[in-house]
Design goal:
heterodimer, A: alpha/beta, Rossmann fold, 12 helices, 41% helix, B: 360 residues, mainly alpha, two-stranded antiparallel ribbon, 71% helix, binds adenosine-5'-triphosphate, binds magnesium ion
Chain lengths: 271, 360
């Protein structure tokens, strides 16, 4: 039932916002989650969740604490295995059969809710390790940075505003800067799908605005899924919003549609 | 110019390698050339003691590689050291030939004593030095490979991993105690006569063993440093700091842990192999869980994840141990415990951390 609802919504938005391939929902999707159920000791963190992300889309996911947003990202990135359901990336990659590194190599990058960077390593090295490259044991043992790669890292350092801190240990950065560094690491990975969990928590107003700009600029070329509690931020970037509640999709559509949905008002925005 | 040089050749590395080079040159001269009655003369006893310390330093280096850099608190590294030692000991036993107490040309004394009819298959080949040296590397390496493969694949971490490394060395301790195992049981392997045909009691052989030990320590240091400075080494540190993050960046964490563990076990095995001809015995007590814990204390006191800290810790603690055990042997464990507690409380980065703070 929820799958049908989601399909309807997809078509509805596809009509007012034409995108290449959006008509054929399954084939235009970069990510296809169907009937995902995750239980922790009998408690259903995700309950028959279905979600489709289009190629190049920027999707915001909102929902009250404990709605299952992070758990959904855990499922997509291989950290948590669902009890039921299927997760297909890019038409034919079955994510449920892959390990975390394989999923990363397939082109899915993730920013954690709690900023996680390599605190004891310099900012520059954090980005170097994130860089898309052969990540095998031998390859890394003999890896040398080319001039081109150095330039790319420097370019990302500029983008995330940490060029001055390139040799500083990441542990010495402020909370907001760590968020930025993690976003930078995501950029270095060049994933086709980015999952960004609460990117602006702990950021100043200005930093938040810059993050919004960055994420908007990334969409199109890449697909981006953003989980955020900051409604102003969501409003500023979202074209489509999915509301999760108790492990299910409660509503989906434009920010206005969603905000006026009585179910949503009841469980979330009205609270 | 100076800054570039400093970056290329960090002071600590220069000091470590310089000190080892100085020892390699000075010790042979002071022992073999300087006359015995000169105050500058170093006795052969001291040479061997120094050699033993350097073996411990090499072992500490291997512990730092996995604990300091990869965050795997191994409490069983003594096992790899002992296995390397046994491989060398087996070669040395074969070198005895028919000069044993029983004069049996085919079997070591303890096998004659146990009425064994023939040499067990796993002793075959140990009369050959190259074969024995290959085993010094292969046996600890393979054990680490198999152990690590299971442990890291099933994502055992933290305290649980430490406990199973203790269990590993304890199991080996019990096994090697058994006479039926064919490694001399309780007594281990001893009464060695010579190595590569050179008399082990001769001053020249002792000095040569010392020199080889110092060179091996230097090479291990350079090797470990190279590993840590490579991108591989950075990934290892990254895994220590945020394992999940490393996984989601596409690194197969278990492989990175596995290979650093194997490399470290090999270094430990080589240290054990150099230790045995100098102390003249290898027995199951080297597998004692307590000795493996001691190694970690050396590294903690010296200072983790710097490599030179591990060397400093091993030298300092063992020097203190030699001093203490000569006049108050029963107090040593308390002193060691106190050093550990005070060290972790007041010197979280060990003595090298203190040095770095002074330098600033
Ligand atoms: N490993 C786990 N074991 C048991 N329960 C878990 C586990 N992970 C998540 N949960 C539970 O699943 C539910 C969903 O958690 P999740 O972290 O996905 O929520 P969220 O939507 O990201 O919330 P928040 O906005 O607070 O980050 C919560 O009730 C949480 O307590
Ligand atoms: Mg969350």
């Amino acid at each position: 039932m929820s799958a049908l609802l989601a399909l309807d919504l997809d078509e509805a938005t596809a009509a007012d916002e034409p995108q290449p391939g959006a008509k054929d929902v399954l084939h235009g999707s970069i990510l296809y989650l169907e009937g995902i159920t995750v239980s922790f000791d009998g408690f259903r963190a995700l309950d028959d969740l279905s979600l489709y992300i289009e190629r190049g889309e920027l999707r915001c996911i909102i929902g009250p604490n404990g709605a299952g947003k992070s758990t959904m990202m855990d499922v997509i990135t291989g950290k948590t295995r669902p009890d039921l359901g299927s997760a297909i990336f890019d038409r034919n990659t079955d994510l449920l059969n892959l390990s975390e590194p394989e999923i990363a190599a397939a082109g899915i990058g993730r920013k954690f809710q709690k900023p996680t960077v390599f605190e004891q390593l310099p900012v520059f090295v954090n980005l170097e390790l994130a860089m898309r490259a052969n990540k095998g044991v031998w390859a890394t043992l003999f890896a040398r940075l080319s001039g081109e790669q150095r330039d790319r890292i420097d370019a990302v350092l500029h983008t995330i505003g940490l060029i001055e801190n390139r040799d500083l240990h990441a542990g010495a950065l402020s909370h907001g800067q760590k968020q930025w560094l993690e976003i930078g690491m995501l950029l270095m990975q060049e994933p086709r799908l980015m999952l960004v969990d609460e990117p602006v928590a702990g950021m100043t107003h200005q930093e938040t605005e810059r993050t919004a700009e960055l994420l908007v600029s990334l969409a199109g070329e890449r697909s981006v899924v953003v989980v955020e509690h900051d409604m102003e931020f969501v409003r500023s970037i979202a074209r489509r919003v999915t509301v999760l509640h108790e492990g299910r999709v409660l509503a989906e559509g434009s920010m206005d549609t969603v905000q006026n949905d009585p179910k949503v008002i009841e469980v979330y925005l009205g609270a | 110019m100076l800054a570039a040089l400093r970056e290329r050749y960090p002071l600590a590395d220069v000091i470590v390698l310089g000190a080892l080079a100085a020892l390699v040159i000075a010790v042979p001269i002071l022992n073999l050339v300087v006359p015995t009655d000169s105050p500058l003369h170093i006795s052969t006893f001291t040479v061997t003691l120094l050699g033993k310390y350097l073996c411990y330093a090499t072992l500490a280096l291997s512990v730092d590689l996995v604990w300091g850099y990869c965050g795997i608190l191994t409490l069983g590294h003594g096992a790899f050291f002992a296995l390397g030692g046994y491989a060398m000991g087996m070669y040395l036993m074969r070198q005895i030939g028919d000069r044993g107490v029983y004069g049996n040309p085919l079997l070591p004394d303890f096998m004659v004593f146990l009425n064994w009819p023939e040499l067990p298959w796993y002793w075959w080949g140990f009369s050959s030095f190259p074969f024995a040296m290959a085993m010094v590397v292969a046996v600890p390496g393979l054990l680490a490979l198999v152990f690590g493969w299971f442990a890291f694949r099933s994502r055992v971490t933290g305290v649980y991993l430490s406990i199973i490394t203790q269990a590993l060395t304890y199991a080996l301790l019990l096994a090697f105690f058994r006479n039926e195992m064919g490694f001399g049981g309780n007594n281990g392997l001893t009464d060695f006569k010579d190595i590569l045909g050179f008399n082990l009691q001769a001053d020249g052989t002792r000095v040569a063993l010392f020199v080889v030990t110092a060179i091996v320590l230097a090479l291990s240091y350079v090797g470990c440093r190279a590993i840590c400075a490579s991108r591989y080494g950075r990934v290892v540190v990254a895994i220590r700091d945020a394992e999940d993050r490393a996984r989601f960046l596409g690194y197969r964490v278990e492989n990175f842990k596995l290979w650093i563990f194997v490399a470290s076990a090999i270094v430990a095995g080589i240290a054990g192999a150099l230790y045995v001809p100098q102390v003249g015995i290898i027995n199951p007590s080297e597998f004692a869980p307590l000795s493996s814990i001691e190694l970690v204390i050396w590294v903690a006191i010296g200072g983790r994840s710097s490599l030179y800290g591990a060397i400093a810790g091993a030298l300092l603690v063992n020097y203190a141990k030699t001093q203490f055990t000569s006049f108050m042997p029963e107090a040593w464990l308390f002193v060691l415990g106190a050093m550990f507690v005070l060290g972790t409380l007041f010197l979280p980065n060990g003595i090298v951390g203190l040095g770095r703070r002074w330098a600033k």
